[in-house]
Specification:
By secondary structure, the protein is mostly loops. It has one domain (about 5-95): Ribonuclease Inhibitor (Leucine-rich repeat, LRR (right-handed beta-alpha superhelix), Alpha-Beta Horseshoe). Helix content is about 5%, strand content about 10%. The chain contains 1 helix and 4 strands, in the order E-H-E-E-E. The protein has one helix at about 15-20; strands at about 5-10, 30, 55, 80. Strands 1-2-3-4 form a 4-stranded parallel β-sheet, with no helix packed on it. It is globular. The N and C termini lie far apart (about 30 Å). The model has no long low-confidence stretch (mean pLDDT about 90).
């Protein structure tokens, strides 16, 4: 599975700890994790997915503090957070240096 480019785990009941088992998927370009029991704490396990371009976290419990874990994802072009407790204030998190913009 190391060559996998796209993975959808939408509505699979994966939680933060489950993301730890996916850290070896370093070639992922698109990752859909919507409608799961994920929080901002689980995002730390995604920081090694450096080829990631699209990430969907719709309908999860990801909050503002999680964005700092996405900072190493230099190729990330599309991040969706629909239905999360994420706020506009999270875009201006001082540790992200304004690297994220709201679409």
């Amino acid at each position: 599975m190391a060559h996998l480019h796209e993975l959808s785990l939408n509505k699979t009941q994966i939680a933060d700890a489950g993301l730890l088992h996916l850290v070896g998927l370093t070639n992922l370009r698109r990752f859909v994790l919507g409608s799961n029991a994920l929080t901002h704490q689980g995002l730390v396990h995604l920081k090694g997915l450096t080829q990631l371009q699209r990430l969907s976290l719709d309908n999860t419990q990801v909050q503002d503090g999680g964005l700092i874990h996405l900072q190493p994802l230099m190729h990330l072009q599309n991040l969706t957070l629909t239905g999360t407790p994420f706020s506009a204030a999270g875009l201006g998190h001082p540790k992200t240096d304004g690297a994220f913009t709201r679409a």
